Every structure is written in C-alpha cells, then in structure tokens.
Amino acid sequence: MTPDFLDDIIKYGATSFGLLSFFALVCLNYKKDRKNNLADLLVVGLAGSSVPTGLLLIYGAFDSSVIERLSDAGIYIAFAGAALLIIFGQTFKEKI
Hints:
Order of helices and strands: HHHHH
Number of strands: 0
Oligomer: single chain
Distance between the termini: 45 Å
C-alpha cells in the first residue's frame, strides 16, 4: 500500500464512510416509508466511520509499517471505540 494512499484513507476514510452510512440509512428508511430516528442515524454513522480504521488494523496485522502510520489517526480510533460502546448500549437496552 503506497504511503499517499494510506494517508488519504486516514484523512478521509472515516468521514466518507460515516456520511455514506448515514445517508444510506436515510435513503433506506425513505424507501421503506419509515421515520428517521436520529439516534439510529448517529449510531450507523459512527459505526460506518470505524470501517476504514478496522480495515487498516486488519491490514496492519500483516504489514507492521501500517500500524506506525496509524498514530496520526487517534481520533478515528476513538470514533471506532465510541461506536462500539453505543452499539453495546443499544443492544443491551433492547435485550432488557
């Protein structure tokens, strides 16, 4: 993976995937005539923003030079953690 491509993924990947996930859910809800719930939209957006970080961490298991570059992406790793905690909270609330 070239360094420039990796930098682009770190800079723009989380925002792009988060917005794509957010608007995909809006479109699906519109198509199925469901109301948009802001909490669900935010959870899906946060979860979507963690996709590039997750892919880079998996790739980093095979190429250790990627992990060194991820030090620039601390905020995205925090978003991934926040998304996981929100998903846990919603799942736990539904099961009670």
